[in-house]
Design a protein that fits this description.
262 residues, TIM Barrel, globular
């Protein structure tokens, strides 16, 4: 299974983006689940995707105000309720996984207040058969705290290759949390900026990355979170076709490493 995020950097109507992803040959999509950034028709995305015959791998939850998750305030309570309702959205739209950020810049430290809210979210997700995948960002303290504290088969890691390489390359997340790998955000960069480039157009060692992913036993989709950064003038059709080619190369590396590890 190969999928891509529905936002791939081109200002196009949502239905057209879905159609282009399907025409390029992708099998699945990831959806940004919010009206932030002018994405006002996001709730139509599951219908468009299903009509096109695409699998919906996950939704990415919004992270505006996410630091309130760790604060004893009403905004933190409201944010928790918002995420709880999104579990219902996943159930209603046959979406198996939700992606969550755990903080933004200048975040409070991880604490019991936030953990209790997360446990509430995971408990409802588990009852409904929905995975909660926490994404690695610029630091690993919050992620380690949550995954070391929450014991549930429905709570795990969304491994973002670009974030890892750009900010925490010496912290082996796949070694620590790979057994709980639930989703991938695969994209490339130069180790200096978070560019979300196509795999093999930056300096990530993809043979090593896919080897480590294969060793986790992960059997989910090869999922791209790429944008047309540095591909000026390339039509979206061409960009998506190139993206699919790169994803298939990654899939091939993973299959080879799975064979070697068996």
């Amino acid at each position: 299974m190969i999928s891509t995020h529905l936002w791939f950097g081109y200002e196009l109507p949502l239905r057209e983006r879905v159609s282009l992803v399907k025409q390029a040959g992708f099998e699945g999509v990831m959806i940004w689940w919010s009206d932030e950034f002018g994405n006002h028709d996001f709730r139509d995305a599951p219908r468009y995707a299903h009509d096109a015959g695409l699998f919906i791998e996950n939704i990415h939850t919004p992270f505006k105000g996410i630091n309130n998750l760790w604060l004893d305030n009403l905004d933190g309570n409201a944010l928790t309720e918002r995420y709880l309702k999104m579990i219902d959205d996943c159930v209603d739209n046959d979406i198996p996984t939700m992606i969550l950020h755990l903080y933004s810049s200048k975040s409070p430290p991880p604490c019991e207040i936030g953990l209790n809210r997360i446990l509430q979210i995971v408990e409802k997700a588990e009852k409904n058969g929905i995975n909660i995948a926490f994404e690695n960002l610029t630091r690993t303290g919050h992620l380690d705290y949550v995954l070391n504290s929450v014991e549930s088969d429905y709570a795990g890691l969304c491994f973002d290759s670009g974030h890892h390489y750009y900010k925490t390359p010496d912290d082996d997340l796949l070694e620590k949390h790979g057994s709980r790998l639930k989703a991938l955000h695969l994209h490339d960069n130069d180790g200096i900026d978070d560019k979300h480039r196509l795999p093999f157009d930056g300096t990530i060692d993809w043979s090593e990355t896919m080897r480590k992913i294969a060793q986790t036993g992960y059997a989910g989709a090869i999922s791209l979170e790429v944008e047309n950064m540095g591909y000026d003038g390339m039509p979206p059709e061409e960009f998506l076709q190139l993206a699919l080619q790169r994803a298939r190369r990654l899939e091939g590396l993973k299959r080879w490493d799975s064979f070697k590890c068996s």
